[in-house]
Queue: 2 jobs
Job 1
Amino acid sequence: MNGAVVDTTTAPPEGAVKAKKSKFTYNPNRVAHTLNKLGLGYFSPFARLIGKDEPAKQLREIALNTLLPIVAFAGFVIAWAVLAKAVQTDSVQIPSPHQAWYALTGTAIPAFSHPFPESIEGLEAPYFADNDGMDPKSINGFAQAEKLAEKEYMISQQERVDKFLARSEEAAAEGDTEKAAKYKENSEMFASKTYQGNKTFYDQIWISLLTVAIGFIVATVVAVPIGVLCGISPMFNIAMNPLIQLFKPVSPLAWFPIVFVFTTWGIATPPSDSIWQRALFTSAGVVMLCSLWPTLINTAVGVASVDKDHLNVAKVLKLGWAKRIGKIVLPASLPLIFTGLRLSIGVGWMVLIAADMMAQNQGLGKFVWDMYQNGDTMSTAQIIVAVFVIGAIGFFLDRIMLVCQRLVTFEEQNI
Amino acid sequence: MIPKLKLIKPTMIAAVVALIVPAKADLLDVEKDTLKFGFIKLTDCAPIVIAKEKGYFDDEGLSVTVEAQGNWKELLNRVITGDLDGAHMLAGQPIGATVGFGTQADIMTAYSLDYNGNGITVSNDLWEQMKPNVPADEDGKPIHPITAESLKPISDAAVAANNKLKMGMVFPVSTHNYEIRYWLAAAGIKPGFYFDPSTGQVDVPGFLNGDVELSVTPPPQMPQTLEQGTIVGYCVGEPWNQQAVFKGIGVPVTTNYDIWKNNPEKVFGVSKEWAEANPNTWIAVTKALIRAGHWLDAAPENRVEAAEILSQPNYVGAPVEVISNSMTGTFEFEKGDKREMPDFNVFFRYNASYPYYSDCVWFLTQMVRWGQIAEQKPDSYFKEMAEKIYRPDVYMEAVKELIDDGEFEEEDFAEAFAAFESGGYKEPTSEFIDGKTYDGTKPNEYIQSFDIGLK
């Protein structure tokens, strides 16, 4: 995850000797080709190696693809560690790599000195032992502490259930059936309670993904039809162009207050334990407004540049509007639409953090904001962890879109 | 999902329960049992956090989540829109919202979260300039309370050089804004007005005709902003004063305890619609908060535990040693100058959780004084507003329920009963840094007594 995966897909498949088609033999070229297409080009030398296709060359390629990123990453970590020592003021400092590691896992690497000596000073061992040895202020330690808290909550709720059951029995014994029924009801109420926990980092990742998914899907649903119209009708394009150019560069921070008004007006207050909080829709709305432009513009360009011959064929066949778009225009412009979608999801993920911060949506942006407000070095270290995670997720989202894009593109293209 | 515990004979439980719990009253029929409360990362959110962590909300059959909010404006907005059922609010916030300074909305409170708890911190540089003007005892330690007299020559020089001192406070209607203004004005430094009656000019930032410029900075950003030199001093709640000492970037010069002894600080605010729709829930929430406040002031070791809970990353998140400094009855001024301040944070003693009308009226007088309320009002206006915003009746309802539950004795709330019966105003007090006398029933007299301020 940390940089070891490298995009080799742009390199054309080497030694592309046409192998004879056989259903039962392993065709390294074909496998390598498929891997490339799936955005897993890093593994294609492995596939070729298995097929004994120029093993020495493949080994060299693997070594290069693996070692160079590792060297670069190691260099980065060393530079970071040096920087962490240098960049320190009275109130803030850059956490070291070890501190970031600790902020994630809640445990120090034994070979090094403890990254937060003050955090264990004077604390009894059980403080950590209760929590599987993890510092409860770290990301994983906090998630673990939440699990324990849930268990404790269940026990205390069970005590309440028992207490009211007992009172119900007592009332029944005294012949007060009304009270007995009421206490019974109370105990059932307690029994039906579930733990209202704090969001852990991992919950927040899911909420962020959900937010971007909503924003991205709505953006697509809005952008593709408008893009198609722009591509088909030059008049419509001329009409829309100023609006598109005007709104395209607007920052998510500027959209937020406007979207906030809409969601406040349009969405009823959800129950507070629901996942569909208004803040989530506000954040998704901001993501939508920022990410719809690349799809819109690419769709318009894609549709406008459909081969005239294809359209003439449609004319000759006297195809209706719907068929012309469904059978000819859309399939022909799919590669460009997907280029737009890939750009859109990148933009969406990037603006999400800012949108979450503003909307107080319980996603990664809120995590970063909360940690910033906590203001100690451990929290800054957690922000660094979040930066890596945000980057990694952005990378995977891009990969997924790349694969989709390749699947709808007929010829091998370098994009 | 509840794990099925082994069934114990009900008679046994009954016996045990009877031992632990004396005559218990019935649960309130709450209208809404799943609630979300907002807070800002400050130690005085403690009663809300403790009520959750100690299961006091659960005892009332309420499932509560508490969620940190980005800033006070956001928090207020979300209470108004109903995203939050209630929140940790600046005492001035329900009042400012109700009179319509900033966002207009009807917000009410039945529970005062705490007294005191703020400090004024200046940068090391400014402190070096102020220090020679501060009287010292024989050990060379500054004598407290430090007044803004020591700042006056520096401020005058800055005004003459047309480079007014810039200071931070957390919100236009926050206690901090009124406290730092009070402190400055007591020494003759004009903090700037929101309104000029001679020209009719309104100034949203509140800089009009001032000797210093007070601007809004969110509490957690105060130390960084001070270190970056954007401001030379600030007034903020804990732990952000102790953080400055701890990191060596500033020196707290005074606390609001010295500006006004036992002044109201934060309240638990809800919107009027919410309160009307959920009257029983409001009482149940207030019950849990009273128990939490009581717990916080019941024993010193509870404060130590509270500091540990508050230092969790989802609550205040600052290091536990920073939080405990002020939470456990001490306050560090200059590095190493740690003084006993048993009343720095008061949650329950002195009837601190009771919503006094006179506290509400004090904020209104300051809003008039600095021009946030642009016209002079009759005394009756103050009374009317206070009765609209502060709801001691709900507080007393919760108290009665707690006594019925057998949780508390009537004596535990002697002061609250006395306050309620005598009309809900505190006795006139002159425990202010400028020695002025404040009588909540005569707000205009108080406003007239200030040398600096609109009358």
Job 2
Amino acid sequence: MFTILHLAIIAPFLAAVLVPLLYKFIPRIHTGWFVLIVPIILFSYFLSYLPEVSGTGSVMKTFEWIPSLGINYIAYVDGLGLLFALLITGIGALVVLYSIYYLDKHKEQLNNFYTYLLLFMGAMLGLTLSDNLIVLYTFWEITSISSFLLISYWYTKEKSRYGALKSLLITVMGGFALLVGFVLIASVTGTYSIRGILEASDQLADSPLFLPAMLLILLGAFTKSAQFPFHIWLPDAMEAPTPVSAYLHSATMVKAGIYLVARMTPLFAVSAYWFWLVTGFGLLTLIWGSLSAIRQTDLKGILAYSTVSQLGMILSMLGAGAAALHYDSIDNNAYTIAVAAAIFHLINHATYKGSLFMMVGIIDHETGTRDIRRLGGLMTLMPISFTIAVIGGFSMAGLPPFNGFLSKEMFFMSMVEITHFPQYSVDSIGILLPIVAWTASIFTFVYCMMLVFRTFTGKLQKEKLPTKPHEAPFGMLLSPLILVALVVFIGFFPNTLVPTIIEPAMASIMPELAQTGSFGVDIYFWHGFSLELFMTIGVVLLGTAIFLALQKWNKMHVIFPENRLFNQAYNRSLEGLDRSSHALMSWHMTGLVRDYFIYIFSFTVVLLLFSLFGTGAFTIDVENMVPVSPYEAILSLVLVGSSLILMFTRSRLKAVISLGALGYTVALFFVLFRAPDLALTQLTIETVSVTLFLLCFYHFPQIFDALKETKFHAVNFVISATVGLTVTLIGLSASGTRLFPAISDYFLENSYKEAGGNNVVNVILVDFRGFDTLLEILVLAIASLGVYSLIKLRLAGGENK
Amino acid sequence: MKYNDIILQTVTKFISFLIFLFAVYIFFNGHQEPGGGFIGGLMTSAVLVLLLLAFDMETVRRALPIDYKLMTAIGLVFAVGTGVGSFFFSVPFLSQTFGYFHFPVLGELELTTTLAFDLGVYLVVIGTAMTIIQTIGEDK
């Protein structure tokens, strides 16, 4: 049954259709106001699912889309899906509100912007609320495509196009890997349903395809979530308008990879590879991203690398959480804290990073630059933006009393806890995990301070700013203010989220554990003088020292040289691909029709001869053949004669005439064999095509010049002789073999009964095989448009010269 | 140089109508006797080609100001439309039917849905042939 839930998922797509109309016909009102309605309604709708999904509950609605093929549209809402649905619609609503003030309704192409944005929103909802892997994959790719369109929104800028292409190539490459991974999983478990696959997880664990499928899916997730070394696309994606960066490239789309890892955790967590790959790459990305962020001078660049780094952090927690699935019950299972921390940080990251992106957008909008070397001293001019930056930045740095502090503590706790895990040699080298996490957090602290203090304190350099700075309008400040209010609220009352969102989401990631009892997550500020607290104090002290030193001591480049290695690898491989495919194409695509004929004919001949003799189909049976009548003999001679003339004549007119003779002779054959329809068609076709030839005369080169250069080509001769031979042999074999009764009897019998026509040929054409005819005329139409555009385009090009 | 095409032009003026009528006849009669949309369309294009040969492109264009690309498109709409029409009667795509009707002057006649489909074929064939010929002919 088609339910409201199904409608809710496709609602953004339906709304996307209306956007261009609204933009065109109601230009006085900013299109964003209409668009804003969609995420607000959807957000409140998904909120109503909270009670149903709490605990281990889930809602599943099936709409039989193509029942004859077993293709169903299954919407599935559980804790994890609902968390993402709320993020997508909630942040979506705030971003749309913000964009209304960010994008000018007179200067910008709002119809494009909002259509792409709604396209993305729908795809993201479909991705997270689907039970079918293929549906998930399809929506996955739609998010990549809408991201591409949004990054290249200001498509006149060279850098936008570069960034858009880069993100598309990298994420779609990962998407293909994902598809292959899904197909591998389905080939083992025999189903594409996620629910079904999770039930058959034992079957998959024993399969040799387990590891390849896991690696491919991780590749997909890592490219999407900008994990090292695929993180290179995210900084370039910052060319997109700031609302897009806040929405796609920090709050939602890049978290699709995290969603996938979380979804697949019950399936793969039994593997040591999964544990080490997810945790290892997560931590590597965390430290790489935070070190790169310090080097940035562009505010959005800092935020981009910080997003990369924070995504790595969430992934590493999910990886460490996989350890929890090695135990049968929740009691004494300390590793579940890592999963809780991952989900909690996912929410926190969306709130503070969203507000920071919007704050940076405001700075960019009101001062005209995002370069921290030119900014400074804005505190008194833009006090509200400063407040937003302080709350968002301090939360990201992990300072109390904000939500970032809580999840950072939980992160430390889970990294310390994991060193006690007795398997996978964690007890020997596992000590590295908390050390890396702690080091990365110091640098996280440093870039957060840069973000806040380099922008708002220090000396105001008015002469370096393109416009006179002033505070943004209230509408623009509203969205980030709501987000920082959430930052503070979650900081003080984190436990409101626990039973409603965090525990249901944990239940989706650890379904078997959830059956054994409640996770008992309790988040609070004061843990006593624990190791985590000292780690945080260390982060603050060392971080402050580095930040203060960094101002004068700009030698980070020496310690950590600007590493363009991966970007260069990307650019080089792109160039290489371009060059090699061009070389390959120009090697065989010569532009000469005779070369193409050689390819086509040799391939056809090889294929046909192979199957003719390879399957033993070759027979010559003369029994059923009628004797050749004198008429037929004469006509055959005419055929042979005219084709010989056609080949050896040096006059073009003679060639056309002999070609016409050839065609008319074939028409006579049809008459002899009593096929008036074919004869008529053949005659008219010959007439029309001779005229076409006459028209083309004008364009042909002089035939004599061409002939003088032509030598005898043995290869061509062999190919053409073989083609003739093959066709003859197949013709003989076909008439000598009768495996089935001819279908013509059926047509003769039923043509009048079923279709009311006496002319069997016509009935076949328009009724029995009407689909063929439909596609044939489609091909005709395309061919005519092809000729038209080829000739007209060439004319236009000629005039330009 | 001026060609003296007076015989061809005079003959064409009469004969083109006859061929065209024959083409239309063949088109309508296609379901029972040799003919149909494809042959009818080709024959109609042959008439147009004859006109092009006897007169010049400009004259024919003035006399018959038809956009053949549009004609192709309309033909496709007819052909696809008969296919889609099946959906309204809950039968598979491109299902065809027929029936016998009584007309005031013509008497009882068979009408088929395939005629609409065939009309599509007819228009596409003319449209395609004439688009190609006109485009190449104009390209000087």
